[in-house]
Amino acid sequence: MTQPNSILFVTGRLAAPALEPIVREIGERNQIATEVAVLGINVAALMHVDWVARKLEVPDHVQQVILPGWCQGDLEKLSKKWDVPVLRGPKDLRDLPRWFDKRDQEPPDLSKYDIEILAEINGAPLLKTEELLRLATSYAERGANFIDYGCLPGPVASQVGEHIRELRQAGFRVSIDSFDQQEVEAAVEAGAELILSANSSNLDWITKLETEVVAIPDDFQNLDTFDPILERLEKSGVPYRLDPILEPVGFGFAASLARYYETRRRWPNAEMMMGVGNITELAEVDSAGVNFILAALCQELGIRSVLTTEVINWARESVKEFDLARRMTHYAITEKQLPKHINAGLLSLRDPRVHQLTEEELYELTHQIRDPNYRIFANDDALHLINRDGHFQGNDPFQLFLEAAELGEITPSHAFYLGYELAQAETAKRLGKQYSQDEPLNWGHLTRSEKHLSLKPTFRKSPDSNTSNNSSDIE
What we know:
Layout lengths: L5 E6 L4 H15 L3 E5 L10 H7 L6 E6 L7 H8 L3 E3 L7 H7 L13 E6 L7 H13 L4 E5 L9 H10 L4 E4 L3 H10 L3 E5 L4 H4 L5 E4 L10 H11 L3 E3 L10 H14 L4 E5 L1 H4 L6 H15 L3 E4 L9 H17 L24 H10 L6 E4 L4 E5 L2 E5 L2 H11 L4 H20 L44
Parallel strand pairs: 1-2, 1-3, 3-4, 5-6, 5-12, 6-7, 7-8, 8-9, 9-10, 10-11, 11-12
Antiparallel strand pairs: 13-14, 14-15
Helix pairs in contact: 2-3, 6-7, 12-13
């Protein structure tokens, strides 16, 4: 019996028995009317909007239609045809309850953060102004709040003042990373707002500059050596941030973490900074997870600024990674939620979930396809290449291509297309990522739009069909 204002879930014959109890549970839990429409197709993954428009009748009492996640085409066509909202659900019906609960929710607000990022340009005096500004712009676009001008040991760099004036005129906030008096004084005169770093060796002249400093202990192993430094800074009215110094793994890393905790205990209201590059740059491991853990530590300890850099190749995205991490940890802590299902931007090698067709679904799909266009799927056990001529499966994409080529003509553009897609499928299989034909792999915040449709062969009419739409060839 239908009810007014019902939500209609559309599926194929094969998935209907599994979908119906899920939809019933959704209706009961949310106290809404639900219906399931089973269309004349075995495998829902083969649906196309144009085919659905011809085959589905939507009753007047339906207020929303939800199609399978694999359904291809422009949903706006269906919304206009039936004058109801049409949504594409998840690609795996097992995700439907979670997707349904969140379909109308705004995503978590990750606009807020309270940790500043100082992005260091190493060897800055050696760079031309154009390159300096290019790097600063890149850092700022990926989340940096300060551009840290990193000087070099040795002779005084005479171009410090000029460089920093250029950075300031371009709108960047700048810190100066040097112990040389002439370099620091030139930087401050040119507009630098923060000096890295101050200890007893340079307090005599640094306090006269009346500029905020990052204070470090004279002896990294002994926080008591902070006391005389802070006493002089406070007496001079110079603002400061405390940095007990994060040590690399194998050189006192755990003990240095304990010093950050102890520094916060001793000076509960002091501003603090952490130089995270000693871990991200000096440990041969992908930096995203490292940056998240360090951001979480900073968030919980109230460390409100970090110094990072992007010198080594595996840390080349550290600024953006820390930007995402500081937003996620801020949200998790302020909202008292686990940092899970908030944002997948830091998941690059793995995907949050991977859904694959079952053997039964692949079998049904193989026997339903009647056109020459290839469908590609990646499962844990094998790659699958399917069209009307057969079901080719295996772990060697080159072998799959050769087997397919033996049974049917493949044009050069089609060969290129299949090679590209099989390479993506193989990559997804190897890394444990979701592969969806004609869609880019998800690399988290590194994902880029891949518009190669100009090389994608269009659906061709099969000899025994009067239509070029693949879904109509499989009923």
